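Entry 14. Ran structure prediction on the chain below.
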Amino acid sequence: MPRLREIPRAEVTDDYVLGLYNMLFGERDPVAQPGTAPGTAGNWWTVFAQVPDAFKHITEGFGFYRSPDRKLDPKLRELGQIRAGYAVGSQFVFSQHCKAMRFEGYSEEQVKAIPDWQVADCFSDVERAVLAYTDCLVLDRGRVPDGIFAALKKHLGEVEILELTYITCTYMMHAVMSRALKLEFDDVPERIVEIPAPDGATADVMGMVDERKDADA
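Output, structure tokens:
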């Protein structure tokens, strides 16, 4: 379950939100009958519907990156989006953009190589530069070495780089929020937890440590 409340159709009063509910869910109440055509639960939409102007702001961003006014090649845009999802650890963003990569014409080999792109030989020089830049944006929080930026500028103009930076950082935000609120495929248990030792094992280990200290003394 998401960490925040979902908004059922009956409580939607904003026309923009209702329009997207209709487009995505038809006549269904997406809280009582969840599910979208791509196979997600749809709770990303129903949780964001709590704040209609935020809902509008964030969904209009989808129109921004799909606009014909963009100078950035959609294939390169997708590399930034999917690698941002993977680097943040968002199953939702990564999974959705595997499909988007295929739609933009990437091969199955390239989709599967996103986790270990650094040692893959299926990406072009410009694609590798975009992936390296994305890792700097997401994993190093914008700390980009001059060499990586120079490699990017060999292939992309300033407007393309600005668009890539904005869209990639936006998808880093999507990924972070999805994990924080446990939305869609990011509604998973915390993986980093203590694994209990067998009964008595902790006492045995501590006893061995104490014996070693005595011996060293």
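The chain has one domain: 9-186. Will compare against last week's run tomorrow.
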